[in-house]
Give the backbone structure.
Amino acid sequence: MLIECYECKGKVSDAAPACPHCGAPAKNGENTLSVVVTDMDMSFTSIFWFMIKAAVAAVPAVIILYTATIVFQGVVSPFLNH
């Protein structure tokens, strides 16, 4: 059965997952997700400081991964050296 698309008012099958004309998802409640797209209007200095903060935040993760690797090697290596 054909129904009217809520976005473009085109004719769409009620079994279609999305409108073939505009791509609007079916309004059956199963496959619908709300998406909000915004424009990120950031100055260069804001982006620069964001990247610096991200790099600094990555340092503890690297330390934790390095420590976990060393501990894992210490536990596993006696079993590998017969």
User: Anything to note?
Assistant: DSSP finds one helix and two strands in the chain.
